[in-house]
Design a protein that fits this description.
Helix content: 40-55%
Radius of gyration: 39 Å
Structural class: alpha+beta
Mean pLDDT: 80
């Protein structure tokens, strides 16, 4: 449990840090993308104004596209590489202006323009160029501005931020792993004090409880069948069971509650532990069935696994109605072993199956006094399964409550 808690802390810390890093990474790259795209669109807008005013054609090659551009230095306009394709209203190419590009032929320029028009968007990127589509009553102008350097800078920034984010995540993960034990140390001390208190309290309570139970037995022998004596005996037995369960839970909270694990036959263990429930079910007028596959083996503590199954069967026997059905199945599923314990329920109200494994939780408060129990049996079952590296959960459907165990 402590190991799981430590890794949950590490997971939560890494999830929070990863969310912050990804948010910053997305913000920086989106801001950079929009900033550079806005600059390209602004340049295209100025170039479009010049295209509308430029007559006649062609003009002198490498001449500046416009004489005054307040947002940039005068030298910037000489570094622009752009071209335009003009279409009439019928879609026929009127002319291709490629004075400011040297690597594209007229056919290439037309192919770029056709591809841009196929996107059916006013602005966008096409093979390293930012384009602008401007349509009037007389013609459609597709203006292209070379953006390879800008796109390369955007890609470079993206890769740099990804590498930095990856390095930061690795460094933070190492630091969190190294410091996680110190971070949960106060909780560990609190749990250790709690376990020590439970252990000490159980030992202190056992002596007077034994005296009460012994005195009740003596009274029963002297006074015979007495209602008050029977009540004292029942409550003393219930309290003794509660103390035993609390000590068991405290032991299961340790980091390695089952140090001496061994491979054993789960099939034989299940047959052995389930045998008493056959007669108990018949005595209470209930139907018990089981289907246990042969040759099932697991590695763990045999006694603890049998106690876990006994808790589930006892729970099914207690909370199934008169004439109800109880079933135990065990089978191999891949590399795992699956156990199910099911019982019928006499209510249409759904059970909060997520809380069934909470300590001292009783699913049906109206029957909590009628049905004996301490409310921590399922907590012990869950702790036992998790200590063996498995998982346990419950589902309710169609007047049936099913517990699933995967080992």
């Amino acid at each position: 449990m402590l190991k799981q808690m430590r890794w949950r802390f590490i997971g939560a810390a890494m999830a929070a840090f990863t969310a912050v890093v990804l948010t910053l990474l997305c913000f920086v790259n989106l801001w950079n993308y929009h900033s550079m795209t806005d600059q390209q669109d602004e340049a295209l807008s100025h170039l479009l104004e010049v295209e509308d005013q430029r007559t006649p054609f062609p003009r002198e090659k490498d001449a500046p596209p416009f004489d005054d551009w307040a947002h940039f230095s005068p030298e910037v306009q000489y570094s622009l590489r752009f071209f335009s394709v003009h279409y009439d209203a019928d879609g026929t190419v009127l002319r291709v202006d490629q004075d400011h590009v040297a690597s594209l032929s007229e056919e290439d320029a037309k192919a770029y323009a056709d591809a841009a028009l196929a996107h059916q968007k006013a602005q966008g990127y096409e093979s390293g160029y930012r384009y602008l589509v401007h349509t009037t009553d007389q013609e459609t102008v597709v203006l292209f501005l070379n953006s390879e350097r800008e796109l390369q800078r955007m890609h470079s920034l993206l890769w740099i931020t990804l590498v930095i984010a990856g390095v930061c995540l690795v460094v933070v993960f190492v630091l969190v792993v190294l410091l996680s034990r110190r971070a949960i140390l106060p909780y560990l001390k609190n749990m250790e004090a709690q376990k020590q208190f439970i252990t000490n309290a159980s030992h202190e309570l056992k002596t007077p409880l034994t005296a009460i139970a012994t005195s009740a037995d003596v009274l029963a022998m002297e006074h015979g069948d007495d209602e008050w004596v029977r009540n004292i005996q029942a409550q003393a037995a219930r309290l003794a069971k509660l103390i035993t369960n609390l000590v068991t839970l405290s032991r299961l909270d340790e980091e390695n509650p089952f140090p001496a694990r061994a491979s054993f036959s789960l099939s034989d263990a299940l047959w052995e532990i389930s045998e008493p429930f056959v007669s108990l079910s018949q005595a209470k007028g209930k139907t018990y069935t089981q289907e246990i596959a042969d040759g099932l083996t697991v590695v763990g503590d045999r006694t603890a696994i049998q106690q876990m199954v006994s808790i589930l069967l006892d729970n099914a026997l207690k909370y199934s109605p008169d004439g109800g059905c109880i079933a135990l199945t065990a089978r191999r599923s891949g590399k795992r072993t699956e156990l199910t314990v099911s019982n019928t329920v006499d209510t249409d109200q759904p059970t909060d199956t997520d809380r069934l494994f909470d300590r001292f939780y009783r699913a049906d408060e109206s029957h909590s006094h009628a049905v004996s129990g301490t409310g921590i049996g399922l907590s012990i079952a869950k702790a036992t399964v998790e200590a063996h590296g498995g998982k346990i959960f419950a589902r309710q459907a169609a007047h049936q409550l099913v517990f699933y165990v995967v080992l």
